[in-house]
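User: I'm curious what two different proteins look like when written out as structure tokens. Can you demonstrate?

Assistant: Sure. I'll show them one after the other, since each token string lines up with its own sequence. Here's the first protein:
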Amino acid sequence: MADHTAQSIVISADPDVIMAVIADFDHYPDWVSAAREARIIETRPDGRAAKVQFELDAGVLKDTYVLEYDWAEDGLSVGWDLVSSDLQQQQRGRYTLVAQAPGSTKVAYELMVDLRVPVIGQLKRRAEKAIISSALHELKKRVEG
């Protein structure tokens, strides 16, 4: 993924447990602070979400957008691309899970977002870092309980 921001965190759980939380879009508003709604609008033949509509409220940033998901067959990564948005012109992201030891997984998150309004590159990267950091910590808290 060109020109993106990435971070990782270690979560005390096996990859399948973490991926189950990532895939449980109906419950995103329970643990993702900026998510007001997440609704699966299209599923794949295997039952996983193909397209999901999100309603985001992050204070000054509010957006309704649709992401299309690409789930790896091995269950260790999922990527997404923006389909439509009120505020964004592009979003591409990926979670990649790597088992460390039994009950421990390194979760890497890559993200690239372009807004419809021009934003200085340095501010854009800072915002991406904040989004990723928050997402990883909220995911860790949700999985580890």
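Here's a second, unrelated protein for contrast:
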Amino acid sequence: MKRSFIYLGAFAGSFIMGFIIFYFLMPIIVHRGKTIDVPYLKHMSVQEAKDFLGSLGLKGEVYDSVHSLEVERRRVIETIPPKKKEVKIGTKIELVVSKGPEKLWVPDIIGLLQKIAEDSLDKYGITNRVIINIPVEKKNEDGLVIKTKPIIVDSLEKGGKITLFIGKEKRKVFLMPNLIGLPLDEAKEILVDYELKLAPIKRTESPKEGVLLQSPLAGIEVTFGDTVKLIVGGK
């Protein structure tokens, strides 16, 4: 009888141990052995990427942040290991995050001659420039930088455009500036500088935004007070 209890106890112990191994330890062992491909996380926010990785049994952690023209600030540029790399469940995936475009300091060039101002911009790596001539009353302002867009106190994204407004002595007759491709607000500012009137704007659906056509055309002689017609594209 006593021996029967011993056998029964041994059997019960074995059953319980087997139950624990089968239902608790085995899933962990199997789970640890599983692999998964690193998902594509580019352009996701940091939190979105971490949540998505967590749902796959992976761990997300910010590894580094770098400047990027393509990816918005605080969004994922790439992962380490890279996408489609096979890793084990539980692996830590390092996230390289965007700091946004690199900012360039814009030197103070207001009042400088155009050539000197452009040389100064070259030294700071600001090469994407647009030159707009605007009429000025004072003869000593001829050829000088009157204003810039963005204004000097602003910083400029690396690769961004800066517009220089160069003074030209005011004359009765002058050449119509080129407005094609400019945003409407910027075109309006230039027309005000030239004391030109803007006719009612015509709009048309176009994948290109901004001024599509102008009349008079760029390079045509006009006088102060003339009316300009614009066709503006956009959705």
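A detail about the second structure: The first helix runs from residue 2 to 33.
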